[in-house]
Amino acid sequence: MKKLLLFQALLFMLVGCSSNEIVDYPRYTDQIAKQMQNQKKALDKSFSEAPDLSSLSKFMAPGHSFGIYHPSDSKLSGRFRADFNGRLRLPYNVVVDVKNKTFDQLREEVLEKYSRFFQKGVGKVSFELSRRDYYVEVRGLVKKPGRYLVTNSDTLDMVINQAGGVEGNIAEDYFSATMKQRQYTYQVLLNNFFSSGNISDKIQWVGGDSVFISKLDSLAGMTSELPFVTILGGVQKPGKVLFQKDASLYNFIEKSGGVIPGISYHESYVFRNTPEGVQKIQFNFDKPESIPVIYPEDTIFMNTQVQTKGDTWLSRITQVASIISTIALLIIAL
After folding, report:
1. Whole-prediction pTM
2. Distance (Å, whole) CA 315 – CA 319
C-alpha cells in the first residue's frame, strides 16, 4: 500500500509540473509589433544612397594643383597643390581657400592678392589649373591608412585598394564604409558593394572626403541599423547573412554554405516580423511558385528531421515508457 501511494504521489507530481504553466507573460510578438516602425525608419536612414554631388564638380577642391608663373620673378613660379582642407599656399605667403569657388573666381582672388607686389599691375602673372585630383582620407580597417590623391573616376574599391585593401576577410566577415563628404554622412555596405558595384558610379569625390572602414559583428544579434537575414536548419553555416535587396532565397542559402544532405524540401519556413507579430510562411522547394520574397530580419528555417504521425506517436509512447520505468525503479529501490 505504501508503494502504491508513493507511485500515485510521483505520478501526481509529474502531471502537476506539466500543468504548472505561466500564461500571462510578455510575448516576443508584442515587442516586435511595437518596434517594427522605428526599426524600418532607422534602417532606411542608416543606409541611404550616396548623395548627388555632381553640382560641385564646377568648383575647385582639395587636391587640385595649380601652376603660377611670372617672367621676371623666379620665386613666383611652380606648381602648388591645395591641401586636404582646401588651403592653397603660394609664394610670398599668399594663402587662399579653393573650396566653393570656380576657377575664374579663384584666379581673380589670387591676382588681387599679388597686385600689391607689382606697381604696374599683375598682367604678366599666369595662373592656371594643372590637375583635378582629389584628396581622400582612408582610415579604420585598412592595411595602409592615410590620405590619397584620387581622380573623380576612381571608384570606392579603387580608393580602398590604394590604402592596401580591407584588413580582414571580406568573404567571411561584413564591413561598412562610413563616408563623409562635405555636409553629408552615409554608410556603404562593402560586401554588397563589392559583389554588385551598383553604386560605384554614384560616389563622386569632392576633395577632403573621408572613408572609415569598420567591421560589422554579424553575431551580435539584430540591431535596427543592420539588415540581416537569419538562416537556421539544413545549411552548412547557420547564422546571420547580410541582407541584399532583390536577392533570391537561393542567394542567402548559398551565402550560408549551401544545404546539407538529407534536409526536407517539403517543410521549409520563413518567420517574419510584422506589425501584427511574428508570422510563419511555409513553402515547398518542389513548388517554385510558393517560394517567398525575402525581407530584412526574416528567419529562414529548413527542417532537417521530418517525422510522420506514426513516428511522433511512437516517440511519445517511448517517452511515457521511460517515465514509468523511472518510477518503477524508484519504487523498487524503496
Report:
1. 0.59
2. 6
